[in-house]
Amino acid sequence: MNSGTPLSLPLEPFLAWAEHRGTPLDPRAADAVTGLLALSTGHRRTGLPEPTEHLAEELLHILLPLYAGAAPAELPGYVEVLLALVDHTREKGRLNAKRQARLAARVRELADGFTEVMTAQGRTTWPRLYAGLMRAEGVDTGDADAVRGWLESFAACPRPEREAALGFSAPTTADGSAAMGSWERALAGERTRRARSELAARLHLVALDERDRSHPGQDPLMPGAPLGAPDGTDPDEDWYETQAAVVSDRWTAAGLDALLRGPYAHLAPGGRHTAPLLGMAASLAQEHFECFGEDPDPLAPVPLPESLDALAGALRAAPLLRSLTAALDRPETADEPLARLALAVGLLLESPDRPDGALIEGPAAVVLREGAPGELAGLGLDLLGSLLTQLAEDEETAEEYRGEHLSRLYFLYQEAGTAQSVARQAAQRDGWAVPPSCNPAADVRTPASGPYELPDPETLSALTGLPGLTEDDRDELRPVAARLARVIDRLAGLGVTERAGDTFTLTPLGHALLREGLLLGTANLPHIDLGAFPTEEAVRAWDAGRLVAAAQWWPSGAARKTLGDWLSGRGADGWSELFAALADSPAGPDAARRRALLGVLEAAAAPVPVWETLLDDPVLGEHAARTLRTLGHRADSIRVPEAARATYLADWFEEVRLTAALAHRMAEGPDTADGGEGEVLDPYHALYAAFDEAAAGWPGGGQALVTALAVADPYGVPPVLEQLSRHPDTAVAEEAWRGARALRAEAHSRSTGRAKGAKTASRGRPQAGKRQKKKRKRH
Predict the structure, then answer these.
(1) Rounded to two decimals, what is the model's pTM?
(2) Are 535 and 174 in contact (CB under 8 A)?
(3) Alpha helices of 318-433 — where are they, by DSSP H?
(4) Contact 770, 401 (CB under 8 A)
(5) CB 717 within 8 A of CB 680
(6) Which of these, 267, 360, 563, 714, has the minimum number of CB atoms within 10 Å of its CB?
(7) How far does Cα 742 stand from its chain's mean position?
């Protein structure tokens, strides 16, 4: 259909008016400014669109950064056009002097931000990027032959020269993201695809508006545009896409859109669909934010490949990558899942010149063969995202909720290389009441190779911490465990997981790819910095205070390894610094969590004199005394303050209470759980016994001990006191009830006294699965 020139505006009189004022304007900038404004407003009573403060901000900070290709030196020209348009609108009687002054001032305020977004690498599109390079080299971007010639020459340049010219981020130090350049390329492709689609949609809306509304004195912007058949069917979408390309080329370079979608598509990847790594990064960032909130403490450092070269080597050596490399040589031999994966990441493309849909090499093929390590990291993220999508859709590995598999990988990342049990993870996933403190015995053995087989009931009990499991329990868990094992084994093909029998973990490559995704996904979140995902080297350089503040939130296995690495090589000084940091923990709801780090340390590795210096500490003195006795050394009990004894007992009683609570939950029968008449012994008799044993040697007896506990840890001890309020000794029970009530009142006062608007970040450990089931194993 011949529609005439889209977005035809009376620019010549406007340009002549500006020339007459002594402020000549760039015609191409004027076309972009007036054209984009015309797509945003229906007011053209002067013949040109009438700017407002809102439209000026949208134009300078959103629309021009999507559609205008310009060298940095040309950017002030766009602001000059907009300011001239403001004056022109005033001269035509559509603005009074006050509004003109305010609008002009606002445009000048927006100018600095305009320069920033127009030069930001993460805000560019492929047409804008290439048009800017051409104009910087003096190419006449209005000459289609000159544009094609420049692209042909650029494509013939050695790949390192092209990459340097494009200016995408190079691999950074170990603390940064090696895949940042790949992420920026993916963003360019995504913005290009969305920009073209949005421009076509805006053209369609203008055409509909011109059909349905009368605009006296205004020439149509879209003459002859198709608006759909009388039966209401959609218009020719390809027509609007074509017109969008025509308009876009006016603002970038003549014929550029068709060239970058055709013979030079390899220079502008990502135009067909969203790059998987973008979804991976965004999902990981969301997972991290949901688990830890704003300003999160650092995660535990994870084992990583020794270098970026080692990362690239591990990826290329993965079985899946070897299969993909073979498929590049003979695409017709690739099976359907492999072909889908190769198409999703751009290793293969459907040939536009072959009606049979034959597969040809895509732009990612050169990355696989020749790419730098950072580019391989980006390709690895693309492959991981695509593989997770396949696993979610395949019947044997289908997700039960969106993002389940990625959530599990994030959980494994938090475990920082600590080996996991398939059976235990499957039991947790199926809603079994698996004790959280259960640490499977080191001598548990399962077959190390071959198809996954769920361990026998006895071993299954050892792995889950649930005694007395039977063959029926094993049969019930088998399908859940088999599905999890299939997911792990499919991911092992990419080299990100490894499994030996029932034991599995992330590999250094898996940790590296997830860390890359987390760094990329949180790059634009101001409340999360690079320190949230430290390397082992970075953590070894921390001081003790920072280490303790972070390690209190880590899984015990990760905390044990990292604290041990930090202490190695530091000698007695390291232990002294660590103990001083633990002793200096401020009172608060996290104090007990910090003290618990003593339990993950290899106590025998600490010099005895260091333990002895801790005896006088009012918080950790009793912990030190008991450790010395356990190691066979003498501890001077007289030196231990009473407050330290109370603090130790508060921690011990809480551990006994939690154990009793879990045992009670696991032992509940159907009758007792529903309030039936089944006889139930008090499950907390172990807590009462422990308390009575300690009270027998406490000055003043049980009531005095209750008071000391409340003073020692007013934040952590209330659950213990609430349970002790049911103690058989009524005097102890009454004292515990009064203490618990007083501490609850204090806690309420603290919470209501918090400053208005203050926020508390979530510090809870994420669960392995999000589904909740009312299901227990009772034995």
Answers:
(1) 0.86
(2) yes
(3) 319-329, 336-345, 364-370, 373-393, 404-415, 422-429
(4) yes
(5) no
(6) 360
(7) 41
